Amino acid sequence: MMKLYNTASRRKEDFNPQNPKQVTMYCCGPTVYNFAHIGNLRTYIFEDLLSRTIRLHYPLKHVMNVTDVGHLVSDADDGEDKMELGAAREGKSAWEIAKFYEQKFWQDYDALHCTRPTIISRATEHIGPMIELVKTLEEKGYTYRTSDGIYYDTSKFDRYDALVGHAHISGLQGGARVEMSDEKRNPTDFALWKFSPKDKKRQMEWDSPWGVGFPGWHIECSAMAMKYLGATLDIHCGGIDHVTIHHTNEIAQSEAATGQKYVNYWVHGEFLILRSGKMSKSGGTFVTLDVLKEKGYEPLAYRYLCLGAHYRTQLEFSYESMDSAAKSLKNLRALATQIGVAANRTAQETEKSRAWKDKLIAAMEDDLNAPKALAITWEAVRAGDLSAGEKWDYLQLADGILSLDLLVPVDSEQPTELPAEVQALADARAAARKAKNWAESDRLRDEIAKAGYTVKDTPQGQQISK
Ligand code: AMP
Ligand code: ZN
Known about the structure:
The protein is 43% helix and 16% strand. By secondary structure, the chain is of the alpha/beta class. Residues 173-179 have low confidence and may be disordered.
């Protein structure tokens, strides 16, 4: 039985889906006005572990939104729309910005082996259902109008503090972070629909029964989640920062509209932090997957690093820990390659291999204990009483969850570091081959040979050994 920590109850609970034939899960997706940082990506990696663990037992319908409009700079409905801001910054249209950063997001997502959602829903393609939801809330008396939009009156929803607890909400100071609009009735009220400014035409705006404008960020998730998954979802995920405002507001909107419980299990991932504090886009402490790649790390080394920390603990990022993750991954793959060779890549399922697989599954089902799953995997590949075939059997399952390319053979003869001049020749040869310049490629092979190295071309690229 799978157990998940539910933010709503603050304890680990047995996971019971409403319909075992289809588990429903909604994950808050990226706001596509800039690159995702590796903190954001940590959250998608934890959600992928959850998706892979659920799918060991149940078919899963996984929905993720792409926020391509309406996320204001402050979560409290003030400041500019992040998309329009991105457009101004880069001299492109808001639509171009959204398209560019969304594409980039999926590249990173795939590179980290995160499983694609069943449905990807863009906010700009679901304005209709958002307007319908606001209309329902209006009919039920939860909304009011100000000069800049239609707002949700949080005092009308008596379970508003359900997710975070009373102490937190009552301590929330309106205007503590930003100037609170005079027209807001309660500090926690939030915009469902914002009007376009009278003096400026927005790039992204739509007609509505209340006037031309754009949806609030919170309504996007409620409308899209319920459109695809129904009034009650099994699981809703996101980063821990979303608990107090975004998810609290999603509950208020959805439950007021349907009269039903919105989410059975709220699952939140803790933050990736830097030694200097929070990862932020403004403070120059913004690390992307591309930055890691430029420094020579492969994306899966970052996945390995994230797997080493439980998703509900903060993870402090450092290049020392990246080095050690990259090294461990390399060693684990080398061991797996040896096992594959010894087993002739043939899995042998026995009672013993099943027992190890069960241990791995039990760790993942215990609120996604990935660090334990990694430790079990290290033990399994080194276990003296398992044959190579049994280990290979274990690895099939393990890599289906951990997804670290453990089954891809690595050339263990390859020296870890080539001398700089040989590396330069190798890079030039790789470029020549990419450009289909075979003559140059052959010339460089001879150069490399003169330096005492041989080149082998494999599906994974050229391998150079002494
Ligand atoms: P955003 O694109 O800013 O809407 O965020 C995408 C996801 O990343 C959300 O689920 C956030 O909660 C999450 N997130 C933001 N910052 C971090 C961080 N430093 N560590 C882990 N997750 C984060
Ligand atoms: Zn959301």
